[in-house]
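User: For my dataset I need records formatted as: sequence, then structure tokens, nothing else. Please produce one.
Assistant:
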Amino acid sequence: MVDWSLAATTGAFLVRSGPVVPREEAELAVSELRELTIDAESHVRALTGLGEGLPLLPGEVVDRPGWVRAAAAGLDALTSKALPRGPGGPLAPLLAGGAGVQTGVVLAFLGARVLGQYDPFGGPGKTGQLVLVAPNVVTAQRAMNVPGRDFRLWVCLHECTHRLQFTAVDWLRDYFADEVERLVGGLTGQDADGLADLVGRLPDTLRQAKRAKAEGSLALADVLQSPKQRAVFDRLLALSTLLEGHADYVMDAVGPAVVPAVETIRSRFTERRKGGGLLDRVLRSLLGVDAKIRQYAQGAAFTRHVVDQVGMDGFNAVWTSPNTLPTRAEIADPDSWVRRIHK
């Protein structure tokens, strides 16, 4: 159990304040981010061929505490079916509170870094919400010394691609929620092959994790699942890699006609992703941020290769059904996906 209200309160309290920005510059950043989401999604639709007939909607611009609260609400909605509810014993409120505080600390760390996100389970009706974190966008743009409007549009292209993935592909939201429920449900003991088995395998798991760290080839999460949970984890990881890589591909493929400074932005942004002090790097590794960065590159390479081989219409076959999504192995070997789907 997680006390999501406490997580939101803790994270919003702990998250660092944003940069000091002149009022005029701040207002310009907020207004452009809100308006550019509509422009960005128009370009994404033209490139991908997805979303015809759907309404073009602005995004919501928030500060860092606003993102923390939105993220906590979205995670609550996503995990509500899988995590246990109700009394759960005399220690349940204490445990939920402890988990809420810990989660809030993580959200505070991420809240100072996330530029934006589309949460398919967020928003007032829990039907989806696109948020852009204005102070983080301004901070990144200033640090990289790139044109403000170009960078803001570039960020919007990425997040609008995520929104379109979930709004144009009508089965994706429920599929993702069901897979998360299977994973979390197993790890909380609702699955007999889940948490009890994991605890029994803990000594071997720790040895595997130590070897994996030494080899740099496997994240800790990779060795924590039973075979059944590993299969679910693999499907979720493959989907996440596809979604992130597809968005990274789209934000660059829209081209210099829309974002004149795109090559400079991409180069400096890639370098920025590698940066940070020792503590920052340790925290990013523990939270899986570095693994997520690798996902961008792997997923973008998959998307680029498939589009080169079979065109955008051929690539869009990934959205046909869960059976046409690439596996983890196919992400690494795009030709195997092309052979399976385009026989």
